[in-house]
Amino acid sequence: MSTTKVAFTIQTDTLALAKKAVKKGRAKSLSAFVNEALEEKVERDQLTRVLDELDVRHGKPNKADRAWAKRVLSR
Question: How are the residues of the chain apportioned to helix, strand and coil, as percentages rounded to the nearest 5?
């Protein structure tokens, strides 16, 4: 996979938390930490689009649908 160097601005507190996470070993570098966060955001946005499309096609789940899903997923 290829990479591209970019520059961006983030909040100071957010940067400090990211650097702390890297220091604790949650990522091998700040770049890796930011890349993983961006990938997760892209995946969530893609999932949201799929779910929105399902709502358009089939309607939003009602209370009974949500209760059924909770029962099934808790098994």
Answer: 70, 0, 30
* CA–CA dist 64, 11 (Å, integer): 42
**Helix H or strand E segment including 48:** helix 30-58
pLDDT tens sequence across 2-55: 999 999 999 999 999 999 999 999 999 999 999 999 999 999 999 999 999 999
Residues 6+ apart with CB under 8 A from 33: 18, 21, 22, 26, 27
Q: What confidence score (pLDDT) does residue 48 get?
A: 98
Each domain of the chain, given as residue ranges in start order, spans: 12-73
Q: Which two tokens stand for residue 1?
A: 């996979």
Backbone angles phi, psi at 8, to 5 degrees: -150, 165
pTM recorded for the entire structure? 0.75
